[in-house]
Structure formats: structure tokens, C-alpha cells
Amino acid sequence: MGNSKSGALSKEILDDLKSNTKYSEAELCAWYQSFLKECPTGKISKEQFEGIYASFFPDADPTAYARHVFRSFDTNADGTLDFKEYIVALHLTSGGKTLQKLEWAFALYDVDGNGTISKNEIHEIVKSIFNMIPAEDQKNLPEDENTPEKRAEKVWEFFGKTDNDKIAEGEFIKGVMENKDILRLIQYDEPQKIKDKLKEKQQ
């Protein structure tokens, strides 16, 4: 049965995903069958992707974050995610190696795709992440991190930038790798319920 499922997924894509994600061949084939059931065209639209995130966050507003995540993984800018782009997205947002995650994080924060990050872009993504934190949890945040503005300012100050400066990719990755506090501020760790749902879809 495994071979027939593998046949539905090209060997080139299968080998590429096995090399670049944490998933096994059996898992990838199971994902592919599930993917085709939900998306018979072989593509996920931005609206479908936002719907997936909405189901994970019924008590918050993940729309803006989902839109930015979708943009960062729509590598050919055709307004859809194919199976390969979708699996890479799942891999990097639920696991992935640190360098890979930081390269993706840079793409996420580089909203206009010009190769640098501005203070406004930091604020835009941090705000979209903040919208996914339940109100009760927001009350427990440290005083200097309890608004999107404060969190964005804290990140920007770490890099020692003035308001009109830019951050290049190498500088961003080096800075975040050297400071776990900044890593915590720029990313969103999915709650356990999301990880559980991802496992359910694999089965």
C-alpha cells in the first residue's frame, strides 16, 4: 500500500521533503492523501489556509498572521500553496531546525519582500502574533511586553537601530541566534492543541 501511495507523489518531491523536513516517507504519503481529500485541485488557496488557522484559534483572531504565513510560503507567488509548500510550512511552523526557522522568520517579517526588515514590519508581524494570544494570557505578560508596540520596540532596541534603519537577513539571523529572549518575542509557538491536530491529520 505504501508504494501505491508513493506513486501518487512524485519521487523527486518525496525525496526532497524527506531530506528537508522531519517527516518520514510513510508520514508524507499519509499527508498527501489527506491533502488531496481536502484540496482535490492539489492547491490550497489563501482563504482555505486562513480557515485552517481560524479553526485552531476559535478564541482569537489569527487572520493577519495566517495571511503573512501564507505569503512567506507561497514561494512562486501564485496565490496558492501546493503540497510541497504546504508541508514545508507545517514543518517550519511546528518544528524545523533553528537556521531554517530563522530564514523563514526573516521572510515572514520582510513583508514587502525587499530583502530587509523595517521597524514598521516588525510591528506589523508582532501585532498579528499578539492577536492570537488569548486575552487571559495577555494579562500575564511582563509589563514591558504586554502590547504589540512594547514588544516591537524591545526587538528593535536589541538590534540598536534608529526608527528609519533596516535589518538585513544575516544580521537578523545572527542577532536572534545569540539572544533567546528575542527569539521568544519574534515567534509564535503553537499551543499543544495545534500540534495534536497536526498529528491527527497525519493518521
UniProtKB/TrEMBL annotation:
Signal peptide: none annotated. GO terms for molecular function: calcium ion binding. Keywords: Calcium, Lipoprotein, Metal-binding, Myristate, Repeat, Sensory transduction, Vision. PROSITE patterns: EF_HAND_1, EF_HAND_2. The keyword Lipoprotein applies. One of its GO terms (biological process) is cone photoresponse recovery. Residues 61-96, 97-132 form the EF-hand domain. Belongs to the recoverin family. May be involved in the calcium-dependent regulation of rhodopsin phosphorylation. Binds three calcium ions. This is Recoverin a. It comes from Myripristis murdjan (pinecone soldierfish). The lineage of its organism: Eukaryota, Metazoa, Chordata, Craniata, Vertebrata. The gene is rcvrna.
